[in-house]
Write a structure and sequence with these properties.
Elements (H helix, E strand, L loop, with lengths): L10 H10 L29 E9 L10 H10 L1 E9 L3 H11 L5 E4 L2 H7 L16 H5 L3 H5 L10 E2 L8 E5 H6 L8 H13 L16 E2 L4 E2 L2 H6 L6 E4 L2 E4 L4 H16 L14 H7 L5 E4 L1 H15 L5 E3 L20 E4 L5 H15 L1 H9 L6 E4 L2 E4 L1 H6 L3 H5 L16 H14 L14 H22 L7 H28 L1
Parallel strand pairs: 1-2, 1-3
Antiparallel strand pairs: 3-12, 4-12, 5-10, 5-11, 6-7, 8-9, 13-14
Helix pairs in contact: 1-3, 10-18, 11-12, 12-17, 13-14, 18-19
Length: 510
């Protein structure tokens, strides 16, 4: 699935957009085709065939051919000629750069980067959907109002949110290791530490070697990855927190950073924390769980029973992975890894009213019950068959991949987006339980999608320096108190300006 946290576009891209969109005359002028509700315009009856271009960022396997069954179905249903532009994810932003230079965008496309969205929506690039959406109840009924409003000016909606499950990464633990070592499910960070230490020291895999890990994590370009449950437990914000009406960034929470660093420093010194955490890739902690090496890791509920557990059971047939609630911190705080998607699906502001309506008709169908089933499972008789109340997946589902429109582009706000018609109900219930169990530990980021100009230019650089300083503390290279100086350097290097600018943006939108 496409990550919602892709790197920020280079400043040159934004400059290019300013040139490409210069004929719009600035942020306060309206697009040439000002949208109107269907009550004020003639309703499109689909009698005229329309060409519609859609640009989609792709992952492994690439996109569909023009004669794909899903393309044919949508073309026939809406009297359109869909032209997908499938762009590999690692070059998608570059493609946007090229399009921005000529101000020649597709009819419908994705904007993954929050900074780019914020800049372009004030330059007449995107159609304002606010006056139109009331005519498309399947869209408004299956997208949260909060997500619709996020990152948009008051009384404007320039893009539809691309949904990502808030709790895509859930904390898990080896139940069979707990049972073997006669340990109880941990509920606090202290109990968590003791269980992880036992996993590292008491040979839970029974091979007679001290080769297991208590817990693991990785270091991203500008953050510690895979331990959000510990960050939250020690009081760190999920990027930002609201305090007395003002946004406060995680980066300046000195006391909380030092408390977390002390915990991790001890775990590293005692062999409880994975010694290779600093060189791990993002998925390595999860890989080590599947490899029968680690006992605790964040996993995707949609994949744990179909991938992680079967992979692990090839090495340890009695293995069992179960959900672990985030441990309570010293003051009782409990938070789970919580994702807020900032990716947007936007319509080109140059579209005439007929094409605006036709595209929104297609999107409204995708959000309907029928469309939701179609985009998750494909076409009955081609990708699956139904006999009575029984559904069976056909081989064409794997070769055609009809679900990629949902996986890569747009879908309902529903965590069950990867549960298929032919999946066993007991399996579906188990997967959905992970999501519902975690809801009470939601870790909200009130500034999600708010990217200041200074953050775009300097944020990643100064964040990386701060994280590097924390890592030095964890491995014992610097005293815990050195974090205070690292935070001062972050603020002086542009952090204070980021705080000022982000609060100004927040005030404009709220």
């Amino acid at each position: 699935m496409k990550k919602v946290w892709l790197t920020v576009l280079a400043a040159s891209l934004l400059a290019t957009v300013a040139v490409g969109c210069g004929d719009k005359g600035g942020g306060n002028e309206k697009p040439a085709n000002e949208p109107s509700s269907q009550a004020d315009a003639s309703k499109d009856d689909q009698s005229e065939k329309l060409d519609i271009t859609i640009m989609v960022s792709t992952a492994a396997g690439g996109g569909w051919s023009d004669d794909h069954p899903m393309v044919k179905l949508l073309n026939e249903k809406f009297n359109i000629n869909l032209k997908f532009q499938w762009v590999p994810g690692d070059s998608y932003n570059e493609k946007l750069n090229v399009l921005a230079a000529s101000n020649n965008f597709p009819d419908l496309f994705q904007v993954w980067d929050a900074s780019t969205y914020s800049k372009w929506m004030n330059k007449g690039v995107f159609l304002d959907l606010q006056p139109l959406l009331k005519d498309y109840p399947n869209i408004t009924g299956n997208v949260t109002e909060e997500a619709l409003r996020m990152m948009n000016p008051k009384d404007k909606i320039y893009g539809l949110p691309m949904y990502a499950p808030a709790f895509r990464s859930n904390l898990s633990i080896r139940q069979d290791w707990l049972d073997k070592l006669n340990l109880k499910m941990p509920t606090t960070v202290d109990e968590f530490y003791q269980v992880a230490k036992a996993f590292a020291e008491q040979d839970p895999d029974g091979n007679g070697k001290k080769d297991t890990i208590g817990f693991s994590m990785s270091v991203g370009t500008n953050q510690l990855v895979g331990i959000d449950y510990l960050k939250g437990a020690f009081g760190l914000a999920n990027n930002w927190k609201l305090e007395d009406g003002k946004l406060v960034p995680q980066q300046v929470q000195a006391a909380e950073w030092k408390a977390l660093a002390e915990f991790l420093r001890k775990a590293y010194a005692e062999g409880v924390l994975d010694k290779d955490f600093a060189v791990n890739k993002e998925r390595d902690p999860w890989n080590k769980l599947e490899a029968n090496t680690s006992g605790i890791a964040e996993v995707n509920p949609n994949e744990v029973y179909k991938q992680s557990l079967p992979t692990l059971q090839k090495l340890a047939p009695e293995a069992d992975i179960v959900q672990l609630a985030p441990p309570k911190g010293p003051t009782g705080l409990q938070f789970a890894n919580t994702i807020t998607s900032t990716a947007k699906i936007v319509l080109n502001a140059k579209l005439d009213e007929q094409k605006q309506q036709r595209i929104l008709q297609v999107l409204d169908y995708i959000f309907s019950d029928e469309g939701f089933i179609l985009t998750k499972n494909g076409i009955e008789g081609i990708h699956y068959k139904k006999e009575g109340d029984t559904y069976t997946k056909l081989d064409a589902f794997d070769t055609d991949r009809p679900q990629i429109l949902s996986t890569w582009f747009i879908r309902r706000f529903d965590p069950g987006i990867q549960i298929r018609l032919w999946d066993d109900q007991a399996y579906a219930d188990k997967v959905m339980a992970w999501f519902s169990n975690t809801e009470q530990y939601r870790w909200t980021d009130p500034a999600a999608g708010l990217i200041s100009e200074t953050a775009s230019k300097l944020g990643a650089q100064i964040d990386q320096k701060l994280v590097a300083a924390v890592v030095k503390v964890i491995v014992g290279g610097e005293p815990v108190e050195s974090i205070d100086k690292a935070i001062e350097a972050w603020r002086a290097g542009g952090g204070d300006k980021i705080i000022e600018e982000t609060n100004a943006i927040y005030a404009e939108l709220h």
